[in-house]
Design brief:
By secondary structure, the protein is mainly beta. It has two helices and 22 strands. A hairpin with a 2-residue loop joins β3 and β4. About 20% of the residues have low confidence.
Length: 485
């Protein structure tokens, strides 16, 4: 028996040796260890390390579906529907890396928007002077847009496309109009380079150099002896705004603490008449119409009120500016309309919003006059239960041309009328149910109105231009389902 065991053990040993030699001869390598994705807790929930790097990445997004209803106030060729649908999708990447200078962050969000129906949500085909990915039918009643946010932050610097550092309240508790500050992009973003200095205890200050195009609200022709100048506009349409020679300069001081947040911001904005198509900005004496520089200031306050209910908060905001209607105007029919693109017709809609106007005296001397704009906003949000919240909000804004002649030409397509001021106001409420985390189902209803004035005297004849209404009121609403992930 011992002999048999010895033979068996010897044979097994020989087989193992032969097998090992054969494997070595075939060049078989051991498998590399699997590198699993690791959670990154440094920057909050949802981040993970990109395999093979020290960069933390968070992937997120949003899906939104809406139904819009409200009486359409746009008539004529581009008349819209009383109802409309919208579907919107976001996908975003947030990458962060710890460095000896602090966090290096890069952020990208793509926004795809498809909408039909009412002119408020279906006629814009361009933003600023740039054409985006868009498909619109003959009357602008169906449209697809592509927008994005993309920026880098490092050692206090921010570079890329992101929300203006002038803005404070940006539609936190409402969906339509109020608080838009005139920006006409899906994301509310603009191109900029900025530096933020932090002082501790939540205090910071930012200086930002920003793209001026998206905040333009047109330069209009005046009606004071305009026929005596070389300043002309084909059929009364178009924008006097020309190319930018300087960016917008924005600065703010901000504080964020447990009680809430507050900000004071200012902006300097170039208002530049020029030649656009058949528009010639020289007067009858051949002198060029000089550029001017508008300015604006704005203050905002948010007060957290957990003593009422967790999540409750009050927002207050007010601003004033000359030649900066696109920054100050807090919403309304045309408040976020043209942005200087010349696509949105400022006369066909009920509100006339412009940064300034060009006019001339009887001697043919032309000049640029800046508009005055002020706006106020207030809103309150209350959680009735942890899953049901309601907000109430309102805004009032006015753009005035009373420091000189009335905008809109004396003769031509729109006749002898003019506008001395345009008032916009809105009040509304929103009710949202969140049955599970990151899912919102809600409805919002607003009552809003406008008033265009021509108060007479000094070419202020009391007559409004053809196509511009004196006053208008309407009730609008939206039903929305939204999922964030």
């Amino acid at each position: 028996m011992k002999l048999v065991k010895s033979l068996l053990l010897g044979s097994a040993t020989a087989l193992v040796a032969v097998s090992g030699a054969s494997a070595a001869d075939l060049g078989v390598k051991k498998p590399s260890p699997v590198e699993y994705v690791k959670v990154c807790n440094t920057y909050g929930a949802g981040f993970f390390y990109i395999p093979g790097s020290n960069t933390c990445l968070k992937i997120g997004g949003r899906v939104r579906a809406e139904y819009y209803f409200g009486e359409n106030r746009h008539q004529g060729f581009n008349a819209g529907s009383d109802t409309g649908f919208r579907a919107q999708g976001h996908i975003q990447l947030d990458g962060r890396t710890a460095t000896e200078y602090g966090t290096l962050r890069s952020f990208v969000r793509l926004i795809l928007n498809s909408r039909t129906g009412n002119a408020v949500s279906g006629t814009q085909q361009r933003y600023g002077t740039s054409t985006v990915a868009t498909g619109a039918d003959f009357a602008g009643q169906a449209q697809t847009n592509l927008d994005f946010v993309a920026f880098i932050q490092f050692a206090g610097f921010t570079a890329g496309r992101v929300g203006s550092f002038f803005d404070f309240y940006t539609g936190d508790i409402n969906w339509q109009g109020t608080g838009s500050n005139g920006i006409s992009t899906l994301s509310g973003a603009t191109n900029l380079f900025a530096y933020t200095a932090t002082f501790g205890s939540g205090f910071s200050a930012t200086l930002s150099v920003e793209d001026p195009v998206l905040r333009r609200q047109l330069v209009l022709p005046g009606n004071n002896a305009l026929t005596n100048t070389n300043v002309t506009i084909l059929n009364g349409r178009g924008s006097f705004y020309g190319g930018a020679q300087m960016p917008d300069i924005v600065g703010n001081v901000r504080v964020e603490q447990a009680w809430g947040s507050a900000q004071i911001a200012g902006v300097v904005h170039e208002v530049a008449p020029t030649r656009v198509g058949n528009v010639v900005t020289t007067d009858a004496n051949g002198a060029a119409i000089s550029r001017d520089y508008g300015w604006g200031v704005q203050g905002g306050l948010k007060i957290n009120m957990p003593f009422i209910a967790a999540g409750d908060a009050l927002w207050l905001q007010a601003g004033y500016g000359q030649g900066t209607a696109g920054y100050i105007n807090g919403g309304g029919f045309n408040g976020s309309g043209s942005a200087g693109s010349g696509v949105f017709d400022p006369y066909a809609g009920p509100g006339v919003i412009a940064d300034g106007y060009v006019s001339a005296d009887a001697a043919g001397r032309a000049r640029l006059t800046l508009s005055d704009t002020y706006a106020v906003f207030a809103g309150f949000q209350h959680y009735w239960t942890p899953t049901i919240r309601q907000s109430i909000f309102g805004s009032y804004s006015e753009t005035s041309y009373g420091r000189g002649t009335v905008p809109l030409q004396t003769a031509g397509f729109f006749g002898a009328g003019g506008v001395t001021s345009s008032v916009q106001w809105q009040v509304g409420s929103q009710l949202v149910w969140s049955p599970v985390k990151d899912l919102d189902i809600g409805v919002e209803v607003q009552y809003q109105g406008i008033e265009n004035n021509n108060r007479g005297g000094n070419y202020r004849t009391g007559v409004l231009p053809v196509g511009v209404v004196r006053s208008s009121e309407q009730v609008i609403g939206r039903f929305r389902v939204q999922r964030d992930f």
